[in-house]
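Need residues for this backbone.
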């Protein structure tokens, strides 16, 4: 597929964002709200639409991801691995605010974050460079463990955007061009040659939604 014909290890990653949490739409990186009833239904609908039986499931430790990942792993009788590095970005003083509240209180900060997330950090928040580093390390862990397998990652919107940045080598601000709805699934195929060099193909973004 890339360059001269050769043998590749192929790992398929399906990254699904968690469903709607209790409390509705708000900034929640470290806030650990569980899924609401609608959120459970969104995830069930999205995964059933896909028709996939994955080899394994990997999950953020946050309740809105882990609870469904655990239920799915039991349903499909596949292993579940929880990776702390797949948790969401910590939004600092924005935590718990609705988008409307956040824009009223921090309009300049949010404008800067949308234009250059890597260059601006909310007060008491996690620097984007640290976030990207831990997500990238976690993805490397998944790709190594799941060589030549098709796996599901139950994660967060920010983690999916960080995965696009890392694996497709695009700027963090460019990922805002991708919608990442609740229970939206995005598929990336990772091709690794015998020398360990990697190429990534985006197969689809949000093809299945709950």
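Answer:
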């Amino acid at each position: 597929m890339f360059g001269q014909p050769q043998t590749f290890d192929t790992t398929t990653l399906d990254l699904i964002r968690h469903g709607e949490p209790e409390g509705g739409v708000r900034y929640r990186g470290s806030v650990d709200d569980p899924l609401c009833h609608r959120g459970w239904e969104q995830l069930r609908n999205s995964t059933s639409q896909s028709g996939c039986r994955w080899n394994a499931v990997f999950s953020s430790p946050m309740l809105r991801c882990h609870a469904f990942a655990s239920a799915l792993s039991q349903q499909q009788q596949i292993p579940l691995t929880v990776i702390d590095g797949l948790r969401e970005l910590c939004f600092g003083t924005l935590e718990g605010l609705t988008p409307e509240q956040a824009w009223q209180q921090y309009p300049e900060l949010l404008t800067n974050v949308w234009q250059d997330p890597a260059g601006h950090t909310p007060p008491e928040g996690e620097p984007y460079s640290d976030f990207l580093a831990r997500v990238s390390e976690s993805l490397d862990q998944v790709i190594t463990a799941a060589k030549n397998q098709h796996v599901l990652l139950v994660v967060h919107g920010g983690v999916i955007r960080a995965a696009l940045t890392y694996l497709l080598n695009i700027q963090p601000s460019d990922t805002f061009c991708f919608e990442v709805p609740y229970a939206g699934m995005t598929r990336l195929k990772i091709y690794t040659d015998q020398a360990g060099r990697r190429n990534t193909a985006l197969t689809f973004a949000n093809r299945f939604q709950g």
